[in-house]
Amino acid sequence: MGQTEAALLSRVAAHFAESANLKLSASASLAAPIARGGALLAESLRGGGKIMACGNGGSAADSQHFAAELVNRFEMERPPLAAVALSTDTSTITSIANDYSYLQVFSKQVRALGRRGDVLLAISTSGNSANVIEAIHVSHELGARVIALTGNGGGKMAATLRADDVHVCVPHKVTARIQEVHLLVLHCLCDAIDFQLFGEKA
Asked: How many angstroms separate the CA atoms of 32 and 70, rounded?
């Protein structure tokens, strides 16, 4: 084995170890807010509400992933659930960004689609995504609740959240590690929704 291959193997192993250790250590602090978030999502869906998800870059992909798990299915056969990722409609996003500003690409969609009783899943690894923060403000205006997925202390988003919102803040500063935990959190939320609405998996 050459030095380069050995170094690469070592780096890969280090990534796995850091990710696994973070997930295990974070479970103690994140379990309660994740459970509250799952309860909030199930309450909204049970009452006829919908879930709107938004984020930029990798967080946009996470928003789409989460919406797909609800509209299609997660791990059990069950009816489709009302969810939409606000990062998917390129005509809407680009027209808002072109005619107004990128700051409003999510908030204008929330204002158009959101209703009291809905939930906004706001994802930002830094907690500082301005357009996600704008979507939070509009959600509050409409009477929709917010579940924020952040990292690195929560950034500016932390200060925008209300007492009845839910904040899942990954205790880490590296974007890749935060995103890896966010994916696990999303799967936990999917499982919590299915468990509350439909019971144990067959």
From this structure: 22
What whole-number distance in Å separates Cα of residue 55 and Cα of residue 103? Answer: 12
Q: Strand order in 145-151's β-sheet? A: 83-85, 51-54, 119-123, 145-151, 166-170
Q: Which amino acid is at 103?
A: L
What is the rounded radius of gyration, in angstroms, for the C-alpha atoms of the chain?
18
DSSP E strand stretches across 23-159: 51-54, 83-85, 119-123, 145-151
Q: How distant is the alpha carbon of residue 152 from its chain centre? A: 15
CA 36 to chain centre: 14
Q: Is 81 exposed, middle or buried (0-12, 13-18, 19+ CB in 10 A)?
A: buried
CB 104 within 8 A of CB 134: yes
Q: How many residues does the chain have?
A: 202
pTM: 0.96
Distance CA 195, CA 175 (A): 30
Q: For 95-137, what is each residue's pLDDT tens digit?
A: 999 999 999 999 999 999 999 999 999 999 999 999 999 999 9
Q: Which of 27, 31, 23 is nearest to 166 (CA)?
A: 31
